[in-house]
Amino acid sequence: MAGNANSGYEVPRALTAKELVIDFLSIRSPGEMAARVVVDTAAALGFSEQSIRMALTRLVEDELALNTGRGLYRLGPSGDAMRKEVRKWRNIASLTQAWSGAWVCIYDAPGSRSDRAALRRHQRAIRLRGFRELRPGLWLRPANLRLSIAELRDELRALGLHRDAMVAEMHELDDRARGDAMGLWDMQALLASYEALTRAMALSTRRVERLPLATAAGEAMVLGRDVIRHINLDPLLPEELMLQRPLRTMVQTMMEYDTMARQIWRRFMRQFDS
User: Does 102 lie in the same domain as 58?
Assistant: First the structure.
């Protein structure tokens, strides 16, 4: 995807074969998709048959995809859970409530670090819910999510939080700890990312209709995936810490961009349905 030198937006890294296959299977979920269709569609975006078939094999090994028959694949339970997690971006405004000033903490110092795959899932769960490390092994975020502590604990566990990690609510931090906690998030960087991504979508919307269909589909997928990733990783801070209008503007722009991108992808995928 071509970038705009004045957009302030850094073009995301190239889409990997595994990410592309997950996206294809997500489009068809809960249905199946033939490997040949995946290969042919991906080839139009510049991916080799070998890289796509290797990606399918690895996704099955990781239990993110299932091989349901000769040459047929669909998302596995783990892949479907992540698909549902990714789709939460549309309802992001309903995930928070007024902030009382309390904090949610995760204490994970006792957790094992020997299982690297489990550690990656643990760290991803923490990151997905906007926690930052206040002290070694102590992670914090404002208690402004609508979930109760018990619900949040269950959700974090489902996302991969280590079973030995503690999740609790904290009140009345001392002045030093509260000051440190308030500075855990880079507010200026967050605001800059909202503005840059919103601008990138506006530029892309004006450009894609003039591009060859495969190029337009590739740009829409890469940019859309990057914006959704930013939304889903957003810490959802309360108004007391972060202005909410720029985030709401970015989400609304993404809804409009997603509608356009889906139209492009329907046209693109139609070539391979037969």
Answer: no
